[in-house]
Amino acid sequence: MDKKTLLAFALSFLVLFGWSFFFGPKQEQKPHQGKTPVATNTEKTAPSPEKVTTQPAPSSNIAGEMEVKETASIPEREIRVETPLYAAVFSNVGPTIKSFKLKKYRETVDKDSPPVEMVNLKRGMGDFLRFSFTADAEKKDLPLAYECDRAMVQVGAESAPSVLKFRAFTSDKLLITQIYRFYPDQYRIDLKVQVENHSQTAIERSFQTTINALPPQGKKSYYSYIGLMALSDGKLKKLKIKKKSKEKLVTGNIGWFAYENGYFMSAVVPETPANTSFVGHMLSSGVLNGQFHTPPVKVSPSEKVSSSYFLYMGPHELEILKRFGKDLDKAVNFGWTDIIARPLLYLLRFCHRYVHNYGIAIILLTIIIKIIFWPLTHKSYKSMKEMQKLQPRLAKLREKYKGNKEQMNKEMMALYKTYKVNPMGGCLPMVIQIPVFFALYRILGDSIELRHAPFMLWINDLSAPDRLFHFAFKIPFMSPPYGIPVLTLLMGASMFIQQKMTPTPGDPSQAKLMMFLPIVFTVMFINFPSGLVLYWLVNNILSIGQQYRIHRGSA
Fold this sequence. Notes:
Structural class: alpha+beta
Helix content: 25-40%
CATH topology of the largest domain: Beta-galactosidase, Chain A, domain 5
CATH class of the largest domain: Mainly Beta
Number of strands: 27
Oligomer: single chain
Distance between the termini: 20 Å
CATH architecture of the largest domain: Distorted Sandwich
Protein backbone atom coordinates (compact mmCIF):
# COMPACT_ATOMS: atom_id res chain seq x y z
CA MET A 1 0.00 0.00 0.00
CA ASP A 2 1.51 3.35 -1.04
CA LYS A 3 1.94 6.24 1.35
CA LYS A 4 -0.74 8.39 -0.22
CA THR A 5 -3.23 5.61 0.28
CA LEU A 6 -2.14 5.11 3.89
CA LEU A 7 -2.67 8.82 4.42
CA ALA A 8 -6.10 8.53 2.81
CA PHE A 9 -6.94 5.65 5.16
CA ALA A 10 -5.87 7.67 8.18
CA LEU A 11 -8.03 10.62 7.16
CA SER A 12 -10.90 8.26 6.35
CA PHE A 13 -10.69 6.79 9.86
CA LEU A 14 -11.05 10.23 11.41
CA VAL A 15 -14.17 10.81 9.33
CA LEU A 16 -15.37 7.27 10.07
CA PHE A 17 -15.23 7.65 13.83
CA GLY A 18 -16.75 11.12 13.80
CA TRP A 19 -19.63 10.13 11.58
CA SER A 20 -19.93 6.42 12.36
CA PHE A 21 -23.67 6.43 11.98
CA PHE A 22 -23.92 9.02 9.21
CA PHE A 23 -24.37 6.49 6.41
CA GLY A 24 -26.43 4.05 8.48
CA PRO A 25 -30.16 3.50 8.07
CA LYS A 26 -32.19 6.58 8.94
CA GLN A 27 -35.12 6.57 11.32
CA GLU A 28 -38.38 7.90 9.95
CA GLN A 29 -40.59 10.38 11.79
CA LYS A 30 -43.90 11.11 10.13
CA PRO A 31 -47.37 11.95 11.33
CA HIS A 32 -49.47 8.85 11.86
CA GLN A 33 -51.24 7.89 8.67
CA GLY A 34 -54.92 7.19 8.51
CA LYS A 35 -56.56 4.11 9.91
CA THR A 36 -56.28 1.10 7.68
CA PRO A 37 -58.11 -2.13 8.48
CA VAL A 38 -55.74 -4.77 9.76
CA ALA A 39 -55.91 -8.35 8.56
CA THR A 40 -57.53 -10.32 11.36
CA ASN A 41 -59.29 -13.64 11.51
CA THR A 42 -63.01 -13.57 12.33
CA GLU A 43 -64.26 -16.87 13.70
CA LYS A 44 -67.59 -18.17 14.92
CA THR A 45 -66.28 -21.20 16.80
CA ALA A 46 -63.19 -21.73 18.87
CA PRO A 47 -60.45 -23.94 17.51
CA SER A 48 -60.23 -27.43 18.94
CA PRO A 49 -57.81 -27.89 21.85
CA GLU A 50 -54.28 -28.76 20.73
CA LYS A 51 -52.55 -31.89 22.02
CA VAL A 52 -49.20 -31.34 23.73
CA THR A 53 -46.77 -33.47 25.67
CA THR A 54 -46.27 -31.41 28.80
CA GLN A 55 -46.56 -31.61 32.56
CA PRO A 56 -50.12 -30.59 33.57
CA ALA A 57 -50.76 -27.86 36.09
CA PRO A 58 -52.91 -28.62 39.16
CA SER A 59 -56.70 -28.36 38.65
CA SER A 60 -56.52 -26.62 35.28
CA ASN A 61 -58.30 -28.94 32.83
CA ILE A 62 -61.95 -29.91 32.86
CA ALA A 63 -63.14 -32.18 30.05
CA GLY A 64 -60.25 -31.07 27.89
CA GLU A 65 -60.99 -27.33 28.30
CA MET A 66 -59.53 -24.86 30.79
CA GLU A 67 -61.67 -23.50 33.58
CA VAL A 68 -61.30 -19.71 33.48
CA LYS A 69 -61.53 -18.18 36.96
CA GLU A 70 -62.09 -14.58 38.00
CA THR A 71 -58.92 -12.59 37.33
CA ALA A 72 -58.63 -11.39 40.93
CA SER A 73 -58.55 -14.96 42.25
CA ILE A 74 -55.69 -16.15 40.03
CA PRO A 75 -52.28 -16.12 41.76
CA GLU A 76 -49.09 -15.42 39.85
CA ARG A 77 -47.34 -18.55 38.58
CA GLU A 78 -44.17 -19.20 36.66
CA ILE A 79 -44.19 -21.61 33.72
CA ARG A 80 -40.86 -22.99 32.52
CA VAL A 81 -40.19 -23.76 28.86
CA GLU A 82 -37.18 -25.88 27.90
CA THR A 83 -35.95 -26.51 24.36
CA PRO A 84 -32.51 -27.53 23.06
CA LEU A 85 -31.84 -23.87 22.20
CA TYR A 86 -33.17 -21.91 25.19
CA ALA A 87 -34.65 -22.02 28.69
CA ALA A 88 -37.49 -19.56 29.27
CA VAL A 89 -39.64 -18.58 32.23
CA PHE A 90 -43.14 -17.22 31.55
CA SER A 91 -45.39 -15.47 34.05
CA ASN A 92 -49.15 -15.91 33.85
CA VAL A 93 -49.55 -12.23 34.79
CA GLY A 94 -49.43 -10.30 31.55
CA PRO A 95 -48.62 -12.90 30.41
CA THR A 96 -44.97 -12.07 29.85
CA ILE A 97 -41.49 -13.55 29.60
CA LYS A 98 -39.47 -13.13 32.80
CA SER A 99 -36.34 -14.93 31.64
CA PHE A 100 -35.02 -16.20 28.32
CA LYS A 101 -31.57 -17.81 28.35
CA LEU A 102 -29.78 -18.90 25.17
CA LYS A 103 -28.08 -22.22 25.86
CA LYS A 104 -25.51 -22.00 23.04
CA TYR A 105 -24.17 -18.54 23.94
CA ARG A 106 -22.31 -17.41 27.06
CA GLU A 107 -22.06 -13.97 28.63
CA THR A 108 -18.25 -14.10 28.57
CA VAL A 109 -15.57 -16.30 27.03
CA ASP A 110 -15.04 -18.17 30.33
CA LYS A 111 -16.21 -21.78 30.29
CA ASP A 112 -18.18 -21.37 33.53
CA SER A 113 -19.89 -18.18 32.31
CA PRO A 114 -23.71 -18.26 32.49
CA PRO A 115 -25.85 -18.37 29.32
CA VAL A 116 -26.82 -15.11 27.65
CA GLU A 117 -29.95 -13.66 29.27
CA MET A 118 -32.23 -11.88 26.80
CA VAL A 119 -34.44 -10.31 29.50
CA ASN A 120 -32.46 -7.81 31.54
CA LEU A 121 -35.22 -5.86 33.29
CA LYS A 122 -35.12 -5.30 37.02
CA ARG A 123 -38.10 -5.45 39.35
CA GLY A 124 -40.50 -2.57 38.77
CA MET A 125 -39.32 -1.85 35.21
CA GLY A 126 -42.37 -3.40 33.55
CA ASP A 127 -42.92 -6.43 31.36
CA PHE A 128 -40.34 -7.40 28.76
CA LEU A 129 -42.99 -8.35 26.21
CA ARG A 130 -46.76 -8.06 26.54
CA PHE A 131 -49.65 -8.54 24.12
CA SER A 132 -53.00 -6.98 24.97
CA PHE A 133 -56.34 -5.95 23.50
CA THR A 134 -56.79 -2.36 24.60
CA ALA A 135 -59.53 0.23 24.10
CA ASP A 136 -57.06 3.06 23.50
CA ALA A 137 -53.80 2.79 21.59
CA GLU A 138 -52.25 5.32 23.98
CA LYS A 139 -53.59 3.63 27.12
CA LYS A 140 -51.31 1.37 29.14
CA ASP A 141 -53.60 -1.28 30.59
CA LEU A 142 -52.60 -3.14 33.72
CA PRO A 143 -51.54 -6.72 33.01
CA LEU A 144 -54.17 -9.42 33.42
CA ALA A 145 -53.70 -12.59 35.43
CA TYR A 146 -54.29 -15.59 33.15
CA GLU A 147 -55.14 -19.22 33.75
CA CYS A 148 -52.49 -21.47 32.21
CA ASP A 149 -52.99 -25.05 31.05
CA ARG A 150 -49.43 -26.21 31.83
CA ALA A 151 -46.89 -25.99 34.63
CA MET A 152 -43.97 -26.79 32.35
CA VAL A 153 -43.27 -27.32 28.65
CA GLN A 154 -40.41 -29.61 27.67
CA VAL A 155 -39.48 -29.77 23.97
CA GLY A 156 -37.00 -32.51 23.09
CA ALA A 157 -34.63 -32.47 20.13
CA GLU A 158 -36.75 -34.98 18.20
CA SER A 159 -40.17 -34.05 19.55
CA ALA A 160 -43.00 -32.21 17.79
CA PRO A 161 -43.71 -28.53 18.52
CA SER A 162 -45.37 -27.96 21.90
CA VAL A 163 -48.09 -25.52 22.88
CA LEU A 164 -48.68 -23.32 25.93
CA LYS A 165 -52.10 -21.72 26.36
CA PHE A 166 -53.18 -18.77 28.55
CA ARG A 167 -56.79 -17.61 29.10
CA ALA A 168 -58.32 -14.69 30.99
CA PHE A 169 -61.66 -12.86 31.32
CA THR A 170 -61.64 -9.06 31.28
CA SER A 171 -64.05 -6.97 33.33
CA ASP A 172 -66.13 -6.27 30.20
CA LYS A 173 -66.62 -9.99 29.44
CA LEU A 174 -63.95 -10.54 26.85
CA LEU A 175 -62.29 -13.95 26.84
CA ILE A 176 -58.67 -13.48 25.75
CA THR A 177 -56.63 -16.53 24.78
CA GLN A 178 -52.91 -16.48 24.01
CA ILE A 179 -51.48 -19.62 22.40
CA TYR A 180 -47.69 -20.03 22.17
CA ARG A 181 -46.07 -22.72 20.02
CA PHE A 182 -42.43 -23.74 20.63
CA TYR A 183 -40.13 -25.56 18.20
CA PRO A 184 -37.20 -27.84 19.10
CA ASP A 185 -34.73 -26.52 16.51
CA GLN A 186 -35.73 -22.87 16.03
CA TYR A 187 -35.57 -19.58 17.92
CA ARG A 188 -39.00 -18.90 16.48
CA ILE A 189 -42.12 -18.92 18.69
CA ASP A 190 -45.60 -18.74 17.15
CA LEU A 191 -48.24 -16.71 18.98
CA LYS A 192 -51.96 -16.39 18.38
CA VAL A 193 -53.94 -13.83 20.40
CA GLN A 194 -57.67 -14.60 20.23
CA VAL A 195 -60.50 -12.47 21.61
CA GLU A 196 -64.08 -13.73 22.13
CA ASN A 197 -66.88 -11.33 23.05
CA HIS A 198 -69.16 -12.76 25.77
CA SER A 199 -71.00 -9.47 26.35
CA GLN A 200 -74.23 -8.27 24.77
CA THR A 201 -72.68 -5.27 23.00
CA ALA A 202 -70.10 -4.82 20.26
CA ILE A 203 -66.64 -3.81 21.47
CA GLU A 204 -64.00 -1.97 19.42
CA ARG A 205 -60.36 -2.20 20.45
CA SER A 206 -56.81 -2.62 19.12
CA PHE A 207 -54.29 -5.40 19.46
CA GLN A 208 -51.27 -3.86 21.14
CA THR A 209 -47.74 -5.13 21.69
CA THR A 210 -45.38 -3.58 24.23
CA ILE A 211 -41.66 -4.32 24.44
CA ASN A 212 -39.38 -3.03 27.22
CA ALA A 213 -35.61 -3.41 27.37
CA LEU A 214 -32.81 -1.91 29.44
CA PRO A 215 -29.77 -1.03 27.29
CA PRO A 216 -26.48 -2.24 28.82
CA GLN A 217 -24.08 0.31 30.21
CA GLY A 218 -20.46 0.63 29.13
CA LYS A 219 -18.45 1.23 25.98
CA LYS A 220 -20.09 0.13 22.74
CA SER A 221 -18.67 -0.87 19.39
CA TYR A 222 -18.49 1.87 16.76
CA TYR A 223 -21.07 0.06 14.64
CA SER A 224 -22.86 -2.28 17.04
CA TYR A 225 -26.41 -0.92 17.33
CA ILE A 226 -28.29 -1.15 20.62
CA GLY A 227 -31.90 -0.02 20.55
CA LEU A 228 -35.31 -0.33 18.93
CA MET A 229 -35.81 -0.85 15.21
CA ALA A 230 -38.59 -1.66 12.76
CA LEU A 231 -39.05 -2.71 9.16
CA SER A 232 -41.32 -0.18 7.46
CA ASP A 233 -42.27 -0.48 3.78
CA GLY A 234 -39.42 -2.97 3.36
CA LYS A 235 -36.78 -0.58 4.75
CA LEU A 236 -34.92 -0.82 8.05
CA LYS A 237 -35.58 2.06 10.45
CA LYS A 238 -33.52 2.49 13.61
CA LEU A 239 -35.04 4.52 16.43
CA LYS A 240 -31.94 6.17 17.88
CA ILE A 241 -33.37 7.35 21.19
CA LYS A 242 -30.95 9.28 23.39
CA LYS A 243 -33.18 11.54 25.47
CA LYS A 244 -35.79 10.41 27.98
CA SER A 245 -39.45 11.04 27.12
CA LYS A 246 -38.60 11.95 23.51
CA GLU A 247 -40.63 9.76 21.14
CA LYS A 248 -39.49 8.38 17.81
CA LEU A 249 -42.20 7.29 15.40
CA VAL A 250 -42.04 4.88 12.47
CA THR A 251 -45.10 4.67 10.23
CA GLY A 252 -45.99 2.67 7.16
CA ASN A 253 -46.44 -1.01 6.42
CA ILE A 254 -44.77 -2.48 9.52
CA GLY A 255 -43.24 -5.86 8.69
CA TRP A 256 -41.63 -6.39 12.10
CA PHE A 257 -40.19 -4.52 15.07
CA ALA A 258 -37.44 -5.47 17.47
CA TYR A 259 -34.96 -4.61 20.18
CA GLU A 260 -31.35 -5.25 19.18
CA ASN A 261 -28.57 -5.60 21.71
CA GLY A 262 -25.43 -5.84 19.62
CA TYR A 263 -25.05 -9.54 18.96
CA PHE A 264 -28.64 -10.54 19.87
CA MET A 265 -32.16 -9.40 19.10
CA SER A 266 -35.77 -9.87 20.18
CA ALA A 267 -38.27 -9.36 17.36
CA VAL A 268 -42.04 -9.47 16.91
CA VAL A 269 -43.25 -10.25 13.40
CA PRO A 270 -46.97 -9.78 12.66
CA GLU A 271 -48.20 -12.63 10.46
CA THR A 272 -49.83 -10.03 8.19
CA PRO A 273 -48.02 -6.66 8.05
CA ALA A 274 -50.30 -3.71 8.81
CA ASN A 275 -50.22 -0.10 7.69
CA THR A 276 -49.88 1.39 11.16
CA SER A 277 -47.10 2.69 13.43
CA PHE A 278 -44.40 1.71 15.89
CA VAL A 279 -43.42 4.27 18.50
CA GLY A 280 -40.48 4.17 20.90
CA HIS A 281 -39.24 6.32 23.73
CA MET A 282 -37.05 6.11 26.83
CA LEU A 283 -38.70 5.91 30.24
CA SER A 284 -37.40 7.78 33.29
CA SER A 285 -35.84 4.51 34.48
CA GLY A 286 -33.70 4.36 31.33
CA VAL A 287 -35.79 1.54 29.88
CA LEU A 288 -36.49 1.66 26.14
CA ASN A 289 -40.22 1.25 25.55
CA GLY A 290 -41.65 0.31 22.16
CA GLN A 291 -45.35 0.05 21.28
CA PHE A 292 -47.07 -1.38 18.24
CA HIS A 293 -50.82 -1.39 17.78
CA THR A 294 -53.15 -2.43 15.02
CA PRO A 295 -56.00 -0.25 13.76
CA PRO A 296 -59.18 -0.78 15.86
CA VAL A 297 -61.02 -4.07 15.45
CA LYS A 298 -64.77 -4.39 16.13
CA VAL A 299 -65.89 -7.56 17.94
CA SER A 300 -69.63 -8.28 17.86
CA PRO A 301 -71.36 -10.34 20.59
CA SER A 302 -70.38 -14.06 20.42
CA GLU A 303 -67.79 -13.27 17.76
CA LYS A 304 -64.08 -14.14 17.81
CA VAL A 305 -61.20 -12.21 16.29
CA SER A 306 -57.53 -13.06 16.39
CA SER A 307 -54.12 -11.65 15.56
CA SER A 308 -51.09 -13.87 14.94
CA TYR A 309 -47.38 -13.18 15.37
CA PHE A 310 -44.00 -14.85 15.07
CA LEU A 311 -41.51 -14.12 17.84
CA TYR A 312 -37.75 -14.34 17.45
CA MET A 313 -35.36 -14.26 20.40
CA GLY A 314 -31.87 -15.30 19.44
CA PRO A 315 -28.55 -14.38 17.83
CA HIS A 316 -28.18 -11.50 15.41
CA GLU A 317 -26.80 -13.90 12.81
CA LEU A 318 -27.44 -13.39 9.11
CA GLU A 319 -27.82 -17.06 8.19
CA ILE A 320 -30.32 -17.82 10.99
CA LEU A 321 -32.36 -14.68 10.32
CA LYS A 322 -32.47 -15.47 6.60
CA ARG A 323 -33.88 -18.93 7.35
CA PHE A 324 -36.51 -17.32 9.59
CA GLY A 325 -37.83 -15.35 6.62
CA LYS A 326 -40.16 -12.33 6.78
CA ASP A 327 -37.18 -10.09 5.79
CA LEU A 328 -35.81 -10.40 9.32
CA ASP A 329 -32.31 -10.70 7.84
CA LYS A 330 -32.54 -6.99 6.97
CA ALA A 331 -31.78 -6.39 10.64
CA VAL A 332 -28.18 -7.27 9.75
CA ASN A 333 -27.16 -4.06 8.01
CA PHE A 334 -23.62 -2.94 7.23
CA GLY A 335 -24.56 0.58 6.14
CA TRP A 336 -23.23 1.86 2.83
CA THR A 337 -20.87 -1.15 2.59
CA ASP A 338 -23.73 -3.68 2.81
CA ILE A 339 -23.56 -4.67 -0.87
CA ILE A 340 -19.89 -5.64 -0.39
CA ALA A 341 -19.97 -6.79 3.23
CA ARG A 342 -22.60 -9.51 2.80
CA PRO A 343 -20.70 -11.46 0.11
CA LEU A 344 -17.52 -11.13 2.18
CA LEU A 345 -19.33 -12.50 5.24
CA TYR A 346 -20.59 -15.47 3.21
CA LEU A 347 -17.03 -16.03 1.96
CA LEU A 348 -15.70 -15.90 5.52
CA ARG A 349 -18.28 -18.46 6.64
CA PHE A 350 -17.41 -20.63 3.63
CA CYS A 351 -13.73 -20.66 4.63
CA HIS A 352 -14.65 -21.45 8.25
CA ARG A 353 -16.71 -24.43 7.11
CA TYR A 354 -13.50 -26.16 6.03
CA VAL A 355 -10.90 -24.94 8.55
CA HIS A 356 -13.17 -24.68 11.65
CA ASN A 357 -11.20 -21.70 12.96
CA TYR A 358 -12.26 -18.13 12.27
CA GLY A 359 -8.70 -16.85 12.71
CA ILE A 360 -7.47 -19.11 9.91
CA ALA A 361 -10.62 -18.24 7.92
CA ILE A 362 -9.69 -14.53 8.19
CA ILE A 363 -6.18 -15.31 6.91
CA LEU A 364 -7.63 -17.25 3.95
CA LEU A 365 -10.09 -14.43 3.24
CA THR A 366 -7.24 -11.91 3.28
CA ILE A 367 -5.23 -14.03 0.83
CA ILE A 368 -8.25 -14.38 -1.50
CA ILE A 369 -8.84 -10.61 -1.48
CA LYS A 370 -5.13 -9.98 -2.07
CA ILE A 371 -5.16 -12.32 -5.07
CA ILE A 372 -8.22 -10.56 -6.52
CA PHE A 373 -6.59 -7.14 -6.19
CA TRP A 374 -3.08 -8.32 -7.08
CA PRO A 375 -3.12 -6.86 -10.64
CA LEU A 376 -4.35 -3.47 -9.40
CA THR A 377 -1.82 -3.37 -6.57
CA HIS A 378 0.97 -4.45 -8.91
CA LYS A 379 0.05 -1.66 -11.32
CA SER A 380 0.02 0.83 -8.45
CA TYR A 381 3.49 -0.17 -7.24
CA LYS A 382 4.90 -0.09 -10.80
CA SER A 383 3.49 3.40 -11.28
CA MET A 384 5.05 4.50 -8.00
CA LYS A 385 8.44 3.21 -9.18
CA GLU A 386 8.15 5.22 -12.41
CA MET A 387 7.18 8.31 -10.44
CA GLN A 388 10.19 7.81 -8.18
CA LYS A 389 12.50 7.93 -11.22
CA LEU A 390 11.00 11.29 -12.22
CA GLN A 391 11.42 12.88 -8.76
CA PRO A 392 14.77 14.61 -9.59
CA ARG A 393 13.30 16.16 -12.76
CA LEU A 394 10.13 17.19 -10.90
CA ALA A 395 12.23 18.80 -8.17
CA LYS A 396 14.07 20.88 -10.78
CA LEU A 397 10.77 22.02 -12.32
CA ARG A 398 9.43 23.05 -8.90
CA GLU A 399 12.57 25.07 -8.26
CA LYS A 400 12.57 26.64 -11.74
CA TYR A 401 8.88 27.65 -11.75
CA LYS A 402 8.26 28.16 -8.03
CA GLY A 403 6.91 31.61 -8.75
CA ASN A 404 4.60 30.48 -11.57
CA LYS A 405 2.41 27.55 -10.54
CA GLU A 406 0.44 27.52 -13.78
CA GLN A 407 3.58 27.13 -15.91
CA MET A 408 5.00 24.59 -13.46
CA ASN A 409 1.90 22.40 -13.80
CA LYS A 410 2.08 22.60 -17.61
CA GLU A 411 5.73 21.52 -17.61
CA MET A 412 4.98 18.67 -15.19
CA MET A 413 2.14 17.38 -17.37
CA ALA A 414 4.41 17.53 -20.40
CA LEU A 415 7.03 15.51 -18.50
CA TYR A 416 4.42 12.88 -17.52
CA LYS A 417 3.32 12.65 -21.15
CA THR A 418 6.88 12.27 -22.43
CA TYR A 419 7.65 9.37 -20.07
CA LYS A 420 4.08 7.94 -20.27
CA VAL A 421 3.51 8.17 -16.53
CA ASN A 422 0.10 8.73 -14.93
CA PRO A 423 0.54 10.78 -11.71
CA MET A 424 -2.67 9.21 -10.36
CA GLY A 425 -1.65 5.70 -11.40
CA GLY A 426 -0.39 4.85 -7.92
CA CYS A 427 -3.53 6.07 -6.16
CA LEU A 428 -6.55 5.09 -8.24
CA PRO A 429 -6.03 1.29 -8.09
CA MET A 430 -5.70 1.54 -4.30
CA VAL A 431 -8.73 3.81 -3.88
CA ILE A 432 -10.88 1.07 -5.43
CA GLN A 433 -9.92 -1.18 -2.50
CA ILE A 434 -11.01 1.27 0.21
CA PRO A 435 -14.73 0.22 0.19
CA VAL A 436 -13.62 -3.41 0.55
CA PHE A 437 -11.53 -2.51 3.59
CA PHE A 438 -14.41 -0.69 5.27
CA ALA A 439 -16.74 -3.61 4.50
CA LEU A 440 -14.25 -5.93 6.20
CA TYR A 441 -14.04 -3.48 9.09
CA ARG A 442 -17.80 -3.78 9.52
CA ILE A 443 -18.07 -7.57 9.38
CA LEU A 444 -14.94 -8.30 11.44
CA GLY A 445 -15.88 -5.73 14.06
CA ASP A 446 -19.58 -6.45 14.40
CA SER A 447 -20.45 -10.02 13.31
CA ILE A 448 -21.60 -12.56 15.89
CA GLU A 449 -19.59 -15.22 14.07
CA LEU A 450 -16.42 -13.82 15.69
CA ARG A 451 -17.95 -13.45 19.16
CA HIS A 452 -15.95 -15.69 21.53
CA ALA A 453 -14.33 -17.32 18.48
CA PRO A 454 -10.80 -18.50 19.41
CA PHE A 455 -7.77 -18.28 17.15
CA MET A 456 -4.63 -19.65 18.80
CA LEU A 457 -2.46 -19.28 21.89
CA TRP A 458 -3.74 -16.40 24.04
CA ILE A 459 -6.26 -15.11 21.47
CA ASN A 460 -9.52 -16.71 22.60
CA ASP A 461 -11.98 -14.10 21.33
CA LEU A 462 -11.58 -12.54 17.87
CA SER A 463 -14.31 -9.99 18.64
CA ALA A 464 -12.31 -8.56 21.57
CA PRO A 465 -9.05 -6.57 21.61
CA ASP A 466 -5.83 -8.58 21.70
CA ARG A 467 -4.25 -8.71 25.17
CA LEU A 468 -1.35 -10.86 26.37
CA PHE A 469 -1.28 -10.86 30.19
CA HIS A 470 -3.52 -8.62 32.24
CA PHE A 471 -2.18 -5.68 34.22
CA ALA A 472 -3.77 -4.02 37.24
CA PHE A 473 -2.65 -0.55 36.18
CA LYS A 474 -4.09 1.56 33.37
CA ILE A 475 -2.35 2.06 30.03
CA PRO A 476 -2.90 5.31 28.06
CA PHE A 477 -5.25 5.05 25.06
CA MET A 478 -6.13 1.45 26.02
CA SER A 479 -9.55 0.28 27.14
CA PRO A 480 -9.75 -2.51 29.75
CA PRO A 481 -8.56 -5.18 30.11
CA TYR A 482 -5.05 -3.78 30.15
CA GLY A 483 -2.28 -5.92 28.69
CA ILE A 484 0.23 -6.27 25.86
CA PRO A 485 -1.48 -5.86 22.44
CA VAL A 486 0.87 -8.24 20.62
CA LEU A 487 -1.05 -8.38 17.31
CA THR A 488 -1.39 -4.60 17.23
CA LEU A 489 2.33 -4.08 17.86
CA LEU A 490 3.18 -6.58 15.12
CA MET A 491 0.82 -4.73 12.81
CA GLY A 492 2.54 -1.43 13.59
CA ALA A 493 5.95 -3.01 12.94
CA SER A 494 4.74 -4.40 9.59
CA MET A 495 3.52 -0.93 8.61
CA PHE A 496 6.93 0.51 9.49
CA ILE A 497 8.70 -2.08 7.30
CA GLN A 498 6.23 -1.48 4.48
CA GLN A 499 6.78 2.27 4.73
CA LYS A 500 10.55 1.83 4.42
CA MET A 501 10.02 -0.14 1.21
CA THR A 502 7.72 2.50 -0.29
CA PRO A 503 9.21 5.35 -2.36
CA THR A 504 9.53 8.60 -0.41
CA PRO A 505 7.00 11.29 -1.42
CA GLY A 506 8.36 14.33 -3.20
CA ASP A 507 6.59 16.66 -0.78
CA PRO A 508 8.77 17.03 2.39
CA SER A 509 5.78 17.83 4.63
CA GLN A 510 3.99 14.72 3.40
CA ALA A 511 7.13 12.65 4.00
CA LYS A 512 7.28 13.84 7.63
CA LEU A 513 3.61 13.04 8.13
CA MET A 514 4.08 9.54 6.74
CA MET A 515 6.77 8.84 9.33
CA PHE A 516 4.15 8.98 12.08
CA LEU A 517 1.50 6.87 10.36
CA PRO A 518 2.64 3.51 11.84
CA ILE A 519 2.42 5.04 15.32
CA VAL A 520 -0.99 6.61 14.59
CA PHE A 521 -2.40 3.34 13.26
CA THR A 522 -0.99 1.35 16.19
CA VAL A 523 -2.75 3.64 18.66
CA MET A 524 -5.97 3.58 16.60
CA PHE A 525 -6.01 -0.24 16.41
CA ILE A 526 -5.13 -0.83 20.06
CA ASN A 527 -8.80 -1.27 21.01
CA PHE A 528 -10.02 -2.83 17.76
CA PRO A 529 -11.24 -6.45 17.63
CA SER A 530 -8.31 -8.82 17.23
CA GLY A 531 -9.97 -10.32 14.13
CA LEU A 532 -9.71 -6.97 12.35
CA VAL A 533 -6.11 -6.45 13.50
CA LEU A 534 -5.27 -9.95 12.25
CA TYR A 535 -6.64 -9.08 8.81
CA TRP A 536 -4.60 -5.86 8.65
CA LEU A 537 -1.41 -7.63 9.81
CA VAL A 538 -1.73 -10.42 7.23
CA ASN A 539 -2.55 -7.88 4.51
CA ASN A 540 0.59 -5.90 5.40
CA ILE A 541 2.77 -9.02 5.28
CA LEU A 542 1.39 -9.95 1.85
CA SER A 543 1.93 -6.37 0.64
CA ILE A 544 5.55 -6.45 1.85
CA GLY A 545 6.08 -9.67 -0.10
CA GLN A 546 4.53 -8.15 -3.22
CA GLN A 547 6.65 -4.99 -2.94
CA TYR A 548 9.79 -7.06 -2.44
CA ARG A 549 8.98 -9.08 -5.56
CA ILE A 550 8.48 -5.90 -7.62
CA HIS A 551 11.68 -4.27 -6.32
CA ARG A 552 13.65 -7.44 -6.98
CA GLY A 553 12.24 -7.71 -10.50
CA SER A 554 13.14 -4.12 -11.36
CA ALA A 555 16.60 -4.25 -9.78
